[in-house]
Amino acid sequence: MRFHINQDFAAGVMFAAWGVAGLWLGRNYPIGTSLRMGPGYMPWMLCWLLIAFGAVIAIKGALTEGEKLTRWYFRPLLLVCAGVMAFAFLIENAGLPAAIIATVVIAALGGQEFRWIEVVLLAIGIAVGAAAIFVYGLGLPMPLLPR
């Protein structure tokens, strides 16, 4: 058997690393029990799932021959992060739909194939769905219109 460093191996290591980082960042949150979950219970579970999936993907990638690592593209990384930051800055003052539309459009600009009609329709659909689920369905106090 031969050890392969390919895209699957790198992706698995990345997932596991994010899981470890999440565990470290949330180390002071009380976890609680399954019956009385604390604020750290779900992040703790999700981080362990990330670590487990990452390990499985990395081991599979290391044992099988796959696509070689290629160069990194920073445009998608930067624009997806910018989309998340736009959501954080817009959610309170611009409202949930505007924040979601801005996030989807900015993040979609990072892709290789950008089609305005598809992106706008997707953004509007997600905004309507999020408003229906979170504001009307769950009754969360999120603003729908700009202040």
Question: What can you see in these coordinates?
Answer:
This protein has 147 residues and is mostly helical. Helices cover 64% and strands 0% of the residues. The protein has five helices and no strands. It has helices at residues 7-25, 41-63, 74-90, 96-108, 116-137. Helix 1 (7-25) packs antiparallel against helix 2 (41-63), helix 3 (74-90) packs antiparallel against helix 4 and helix 4 (96-108) packs antiparallel against helix 5.
- Largest β sheet strand count, sense and barrel closure: none
- Quick one: how many beta strands? 0
Q: What structural class is derived from the secondary structure elements?
A: mainly alpha
Estimate the helix proportion, in percent: 55-70%
* Net shape: flat
Poorly predicted spans: none
**Roughly how many Å apart are the termini?**
62 Å
The helix count comes to 5
Share of β-strand residues: under 5%
Rounded mean pLDDT score: 92
**C-alpha Rg, in Å?**
19 Å
SSE order in H/E notation? Answer: HHHHH
Topology:
Layout: H1 7-25, H2 41-63, H3 74-90, H4 96-108, H5 116-137
Helix pairs in contact: 1-2, 3-4, 4-5
Question: How is this structure best summarized?
Answer:
This protein has 147 residues and is mostly helical. The chain is 64% helix and 0% strand. Helix 4 packs antiparallel against helix 5 (116-137).
Provide the descriptors you would attach to this structure in a database record:
single chain, mainly alpha, 147 residues
